[in-house]
Amino acid sequence: MTLSEIKKVLEATCFTRHCLEDKEVDTACGADLLSDVLAHRKEKTVLLTGLINPQVIRTAEIIDLIGVIFVRGKVPSQEIIDLAEAKDIPILCTAYPMYESCGLLYKAGLGVISNV
Questions:
Q1: In this predicted model, what pLDDT tens digit does every residue of 70-83 receive, in sequence order?
Q2: CA distance 111 to 75
Q3: Residue 13: in which H helix or E strand, if any?
Q4: Is the CA virtual torsion 104, 14, 78, 73 positive or negative?
Q5: How much is the pLDDT for 114?
Q6: Cα–Cα distance between 20 and 50 in angstroms, integer?
């Protein structure tokens, strides 16, 4: 599945120019604890989270996530957007809650979804 397909499935809004790239995504990780995200460590993963701070982007960079999707209608600050742009990490936002977002992605055919 690509980021653009995920954007459609989740009716998401893109906050970075990198969302326009068709990066392949194999798995998703839904978590609000960054320590759980660090333990996930699978390639071609996108993070779904309700945690909205710069540490999310730094964590995404450390484990080479494909992108970050903020759930529950949360909107990132300009600081977070700027950091994501600098690190080439796409940011999407959806109004769906995390559980429903993971379910929609699974139903659409995305591989293993872990809600840690």
A1: 999 999 999 999 99
A2: 26
A3: strand 13-14
A4: negative
A5: 57
A6: 22
9: nearest Cα among 116, 100, 111, 115? 100
The CATH class that applies to domain 3-115 reads alpha beta
pTM assigned to the model: 0.92
Q: What is the pLDDT of residue 111?
A: 72
C-alpha dist (Å) from residue 90 to 64, 107, 109, 115 = 12, 22, 21, 20
Q: What is the dihedral of CA 102, 106, 110, 112, to 10 degrees?
A: 80
Look up residue 95 and give its two tokens: 């109004």
For residues 32 and 21, give the distance between their C-alpha atoms in angstroms, rounded to a whole number. Answer: 26
**Going by C-beta distance under 8 Å and a sequence separation of 6 or more, which residues neighbour residue 87?**
57, 60, 61
Taking alpha carbons only, the member of 41, 42, 40, 1 closest to residue 23 is 1
